[in-house]
Amino acid sequence: MKTDLLPIVTSLLIPGTADGTAVVWAKRLLTATIVFALFWLFAQLVRHLLERFGTKFSAFTKTDLDDRLLKRITPSITLLLSTLGCYIALSTLPLQERFFKVLSGVLFVALVVICAVIIYRVVDELLSRYLDRLQHQEEVISRSMMPLVRKLATIVLCGASLIIILKKFNYDILSLLTALGIGSLAIGLAAKDTLAQMISGFILLIDRPFRIGDRIRLAGGQVGDVVDIGMRSTKIQGLDTTVMIIPNSDLCNATVVNMVRPTAVIQGRITLGIGYDSDVERAKELLLEIARNNAGVLEEPAPVAQFTSFGDSALNLLLLFWVADPTRLGAVTDQLNCAILRKFRDSGVAIPYPTRTVHLQQLDLSS
Description:
Helix content is about 55%, strand content about 15%. It is built from 10 helices and 8 strands. It is elongated, with a radius of gyration of 39 Å.
């Protein structure tokens, strides 16, 4: 019974064996074995070269990115070359067309998957390197963004791999792309606000008008420190320790003043008035002296004292000074105000307050 089935199975897999062409099959099998062996040896040689000389070459670079890439993609490259050798060796065998299509299709899918894994590992290492560089520069990026980027990269690679595989098996890709386009349009219309916030979040991270830790002033006049840039919104801690949650699209479309970049130097202003009988030049000298003696005021740019206008009851003066840290502006202003008040009192410079003089006229009622 077994003797009767063997020729039937062999004839199904190998055309021509029933007619006595086993010698041709043996030669093809030997050729396929040699092809696979050559590719396998070449894969081992490439792995050996990458592990030995690639490591030595990467030692001359300042970054460890190349070391991490070699460590992650070397096994996949070896597997890729071995699978490619098996795919080419299979094409030399005189198999039935249907059986050959099945085996070659399986190996082709394996090749596409291995290539996608290599690309994903490279992208993953580049993203990890980017995040490490931001952390090294004390510019912490939102933790919720990196997983999203990795998921998007995975989706793109899976989609591209699926299209390549379907194209190999002569499936209609146009209908699939049309269905995906219609589905994406429906999802986009249903979640357009959420997608707008996410896209705006990516724009903020790429354009980087401000970074986490920066102090910014919003279009409405609110001042606060950026504590997080998320997928949908940005969190800003105000000076009163409250947290403002602002949609990313509002920040992208509004005027935002970054108070610490490109330089953290911020200008402070103190406006005050002195009496009309006071010496203006003496008052200006006192203001400059007070500002220069304060450790929080920068020497360059130097503080400036100006006589700005004539008020109803005082001569208005303006003191301009610069502070290196925006968070210190309030404290430095408080110190200067207290010093100005003491100095002006000791120097006899009057700081008037609005007064009104009322003249009463007596009327002659006898007439």
